Structure formats: C-alpha cells, structure tokens
Amino acid sequence: MIETKDLTRTFKSGDVVTPVLKGIDFATREGEWVAIMGRSGAGKSTFLYQISLLDDPTGGEIIIDGHNTHTMSANAKMHFRLSTFGFVFQDYALLPELTALENVALPLLMAGKSKSAAYSTSSAALERAGLGKRVGNLPSQLSGGEQQRVAIVRAVAHKPKVLFADEPTANLDNDSARRIMEIFTELHREGQTIIMVTHEEQYAKLAERIVKIDDGRIVSEEKLTT
Amino acid sequence: MIPLNVRIGFFLALRALRRASPWTTSLIIFVMILTFLNLVVVSGILVGLLQGAIDQTRVKFTSDVIVSALNDKAYIENSPNLIALIETLPEVEAITPRYREGGILEANYKTRKETDKANTATAQLVGIDPFKENTVTGIANDIVEGAFLVPGDYDQVVLGHYLLKQYIPIESPAFSTLENVGIGTKIRMKVGDVTREVTVKGIIRSKVDEIALRAFMVDSQFRSMIGRNDGNVTEISIKLKDGADPVAVRDALVRSGVDTYAKVQTYEDAQPQFLKDIIATFNMLGNVFSSLGLIVATITIFIVIFINALTRRKFIGILKGIGIDGRAIEYSYVFQSVFYASLGAVVGLGLVYGILVPFFAAHPIDFPFSDGILVAPIDKTLFRVGLLVVSTLVAGFIPAWMIIRKNTLDSILGRN
Predict the structure, then answer these.
(1) Per residue in B365-390, is it b (16+ CB within 10 Å) or e — as a string?
(2) Are B240 and B246 in contact (CB under 8 A)?
(3) Which of chain A's residues have a Cβ under 8 Å away from the Cβ of B329?
(4) pLDDT for A226
(5) Are A203 and A172 in contact (CB under 8 A)?
(6) Which of B338, B357, B335 is CA-nearest to residue B346?
(7) Could you give the count of Cα atoms lying within 13 Å of A153 in the half-sphere of its Cβ?
(8) Which of A83, A89, A102 is the closest to B15 by Cβ?
(9) 3-class secondary structure per residue, B344-360
C-alpha cells in the first residue's frame, strides 16, 4: 500500500548538511498496524512526515497505492492527504477556536460533505469515542486525553486509508494513553491501516510489526503476533 | 453555488471572529471606525467649510435664482414687466427686488475738525422692501443690534457689520470702516451728488460679504435718493418652492428672452470663480488626507492580520496538514479583514449620518467666513466605504498568503 525505495532526507542550514534519512526501503500492506521506534533523533518522525506527504524527500521514491508521489503537485498532495490520510499529532493539533464537533467536521466539510452530514457523522464518531457530552467544548475546555481522542476522531472520521500517528501518547498520563491505545486497537480490528511513531515499547507491542530506525536507516523489523 | 473553499473560509472566519478576544476585536474595529471617520470627516469638514459659505450666500443673498443687471448696465431694464413675469412662474415662492448703488457713508462729521480726516466707508447702498427681503432671505434674524427695517421707516438704515470698526478692527488703507457708530447714530449717505443724513436703526452681522458690506434702507426712499422712478431695480432674488429646480426656472426665464436685458443665474452660477477653485482645491486636499487615512488603515489591517497569521502559523500548518486548501485559509483571513472594515464602516456611517452631520447642521463650526458644516454626500461616502473594504481585503489577503505559502511541516513544527 505504501512503499518507499531508497528514501533520503537531508537538511541544510547554511553550509551544514545533515542527512537524517539515509536510504529507507519500507513497505506496508493494507490493514497493517506498524509501529516505528527509535531513539530521539533517529529519524522516525522525519520518516513519518515523508510517507504522509507532509514533507518532500531529498531522494528516493514513495509509492502509495501505485502512485509515485514524486510527480504529484503540492495541491495534489494536499488533496491526497485529505482523502486518503488521517493524522494524529503528538500535541493533538486541534484548532483552538473550533469546538470538538467542529474540529472533527472540518475535514469532512472540506471533502465536500454537507454541513448536516458532516456534523451528524462527527457527532456520532465523538459519541463512540466517549465524548458525546463534550461535542460543544473548545479544546481548552478538554483534558489532554480528551483532546487526543478528539484528534483521533478527526483523523478517522472521513475513513482514511492510512492513519498516521506521531507519538500520540507522549503527552498523556498512563490512563489516557491506555484509552488512546484501546481506540487504536479497535480501529485496527476494524481494518484501519495505522503507522505510528512511538517511544513506548508497551504500546508498540500492540502493533503487528515494529520497525526500528537508527541513524536514518531501518535497523530491525519485528513481526508480532496479536 | 458558493465554491467550497469560500464556504470553508467563511466557516473558519466566523468561528475565529466569534471566539476571538472581545477586546482585540473591539480595538481593531475602533481603529477601523477612526479610519473611516478620517476618510469621511476630514474632507467633509474641509468641503463643508466652503459649503457653509455657499449655503449662506444662497440663503441670505442670491436665494435659488438671481436676476441682475447686465455688466454694462446700472439696472435691469423693464424691471416691472420682468417682476410680473417672474411672479407668474409656478415654481416661485417669493421674490425680493433690490435697488443698489455704490456710495459712501460718513460718520462723526459733526464733531470732525476741518483738519481731521473724514471718517468714511465705501458701501453698497441697497433699497429693499423689508417685508419681501425678509421673506426671501430672512436677514432680519441676523440683526445683532437694534432692529430691522419696516416699510414706513424714514431716513433709517441698517448697516452690515463689515462697515463698522467695532466689528472689523482692521487698519488698512484699502479698507475703511466707520468709527463710533452704533444704534441711533446719525451718518451721511452719499450716492452720486445726493447726500442724505440717516439714522442707524440696526446692525446686521453676516458671513456673506454681499450682506456685511451693505447699507440697507427702504426702497421707496432709496428710489427718491437715486432719482429712479421707473421701477427698474438692480437685482431680483427669487426663492423657489421646495423641490423646484433652479436650473429649470433659469432656463424658463432665458427662453422668455430675459437674458437679453438681464443676467439670469442660479445660485451655483452666481458663485464666484475663486470659490469654485477653492472647493476644487479643498476636495483635492480632502482626497489627499483620505488617501493617507486609507494607507494607515491598510497598514493597520496588514499588521493585525500578519501578526494573527504569524502567531497562528502552527495552526495554519495543521489546517494544511489535514487537507484544508490554502485558498480556504486565505479566504478566512480575507473574510475577517472585510468583517473588521465593514463593521468599522457601518458604525462610522451611523456616527456620521446619525450624529455628526445633524450635529454640525445644528451647531456649525464658527469659521470667520462661514458656518462650517459636515458635507458627506452618500455616494462619495459609499465610495469611500468601498475603498476601505477593498484595501483591507488586500491587506488581509497578503499576510495570509505569505504565511500560507510556507512549508506545511515547517509551519506545524515552528521551523523557520
């Protein structure tokens, strides 16, 4: 479903050139849950940004559903992200002036759904995530765990093919983190493809496969039985 | 069907405005109100200063249409027939015919020694029917000392205040005034070879030069003084009924051939060229001030939106990251700018037409040569509203566009 070939990403700052990804070959199939691990600065988040088309690689190829993304325009990538991907960021990344319901509904509205349909879908999704009574709350009125649940609902409300998550439990207490992982497990059970960057082994072990990155390269892959 | 990006932009803008800090929103709108007032009021006062003079001249002197002697004639020939013709016009409400001659006024002649310089003032001496004059121009209301003339007054005059030193204390070889003259003072009026001693009955204070430099007396007496018994007058001011068009009346008189023996002018035609030039100059100055105000407004909105977009760069990145089109985000900022400008303009319009225009109409600014009002023609004001909205629209778009075109991931991560 997503395949990378010899993927590289180098950052330049003046004369300083920092290669972060040094040729990554990676593939995932539909419905798979992949956990990407590695120490800080290993390149795991940078890798996630490349395959989720948030950033442009320096070299190599990213092929998604047979489409080589190298030839895509910025606009096409934006539409691809909207229609195909869902994102969960470490710091929730909710829009502060939108309520939980509006945060979830926004990508649906952008996808062309009517306001009533978008609100209805979003409301039902928030209800399923145990946030039925918080739909009208602004992010500032929600706890960290609730905000992350809203972020997950927003990411999957439009039924993306792939859900990307960048350390989704990093800012949460244990209970909240466990609740988030329960949601991920349920989504995976329903067939959702998930690619998740995490530091925490206990949560990585919930995935089907753990890919370890170090110094910009995949150093190991471990298949897990779930 | 409204394009999707516009709808999303509106969705985002509405919520950003609804949940913005009320203080910040109020401050921005306050700046917009001040900008709007700067656009409309500064030029409006400048033009109103002149408009006040024009209005005064119309009300107090020319009225709506004025018929006067041709430049090479001392009076309007065939005046009685002309007056009869004018009075048949259905648009005419009232007229006031006037006799006018240049003359000299002299005061203190009884106490003056032979070696003393005569205390004289050059004036336009005018014979009027007090009732008709007051019906057309209402100048009796401008009497500041004494009383206005009545038809039976004999050897009495009303003087414009420019003729009196206590009102115009100017020492100038080109401009002389009468000293120690008040109500009841006897002065001499000299027209040609005829001199008559008259008593000052009243003093008119007017910002219309044509009134302030005149000495008025009852027409029957003035006729005998200048020896004109044929009823030919020098000028006729014509007041029209409400809604009547001065141009139509002027044209009707011209079609009747009046222009062969008299000048027929509307109040606008009768404005001196220098006044028209000053109006044009003030309009230009007003436009310059307005342009500066517009630039200030544009920069203000630019800064506000730029800071707003800059501090929200991360969220702009997130919006792009989750697939929201950059155009929709740009529209949201444009809508916010237009909202600020529109609300500022609406409140400004309310202030201008609800408070300032009526206030200045009731309490004109006391300029030396006019009662300044606030002139704000609705068409010009709406044009300025349009200018303000368009400039703020551009000022809102540019910073949003600058931030949105930055790399999505850099925005999300706060990288430069």
Answers:
(1) eeeeebbbbbbbeeebbeebbebbbe
(2) yes
(3) none
(4) 56
(5) no
(6) B338
(7) 30
(8) A102
(9) HHHHHHHHHHHHHHHHH
Q: How far is it, in rounded angstroms, from Cα A61 to Cα A6?
A: 7
CB A104 within 8 A of CB A157: yes
- Residue B224 contacts residue B259 (beta carbons within 8 Å): no
Report the alpha-carbon distance of residue A32 to residue B171 in Å, rounded.
103
Sequence-distant (6+) residues with CB within 8 A of B105 are: B120, B121, B122, B123, B159, B163, B178, B187, B188, B189, B190, B215
Q: How many CB atoms lie within 10 A of CB B198?
A: 22
Place of tokens 């300029």: B367
Chain A residues near residue B407 by CB distance under 8 angstroms: 55
> Strand A85-88 vs strand B65-68: parallel, antiparallel, or unpaired?
unpaired
Helices B22-57 and B273-311 cross at an angle (nearest 10°) of: 180
Instruction: Report the alpha-carbon distance of residue B204 to residue B187 in Å, rounded.
Output: 16
The rounded mean pLDDT for chain A is 91
Q: Does the beta-carbon distance from B11 to A78 stay under 8 Å? A: no
Q: For residue B326, list chain A residues with Cβ-Cβ distance below 8 A.
A: 78
Between chains, do A83 and B323 touch, taking CB under 8 Å as contact?
yes
Interface A-B, measured as beta-carbon pairs within 8 A, has a size of 65
Q: Measured between alpha carbons, how far is B337 from B314 in angstroms, rounded to an integer? A: 20
**Does any CB of chain A come closer than 8 Å to the CB of residue B6?**
no
Q: Which domains does chain A have, with CATH numbers?
A: 2-223 (3.40.50.300)
> B323 CB near a chain A CB, below 8 Å?
yes
pLDDT on residue B212: 92
Instruction: Give, for B288, the enclosing helix (H) or strand (E).
Output: helix B273-311
Q: Which residues of A touch B320 (CB under 8 A)?
A: 78
Helix-strand-coil split of chain B, %, nearest 5: 55, 20, 25
Q: CB A54 to CB B409 under 8 A? A: yes
Q: What is the pTM of this model?
A: 0.75
ipTM: 0.86
Q: Do A106 and B8 touch (CB under 8 A)?
A: yes
- CB atoms inside a 10 Å sphere around CB A217: 15
In sequence order, what DSSP letters do the residues of B163-200 get, joined into one string? Answer: GBTTT----BTTB--BSS--TT-EEEEEETTEEEEEEE
Best residue of B2, B25, B322, B332 to probe chain A, by most A CBs closer than 10 Å? B322
Write down the pLDDT at residue B12: 94
The answer to whether A211 and A37 have CB atoms below 8 angstroms apart is yes
Note whether B316 and B329 are within 8 A (CB): yes
Please give the mean pLDDT across all residues of chain B.
90
Q: Does position B69 have pLDDT exceeding 90, yes or no?
A: yes
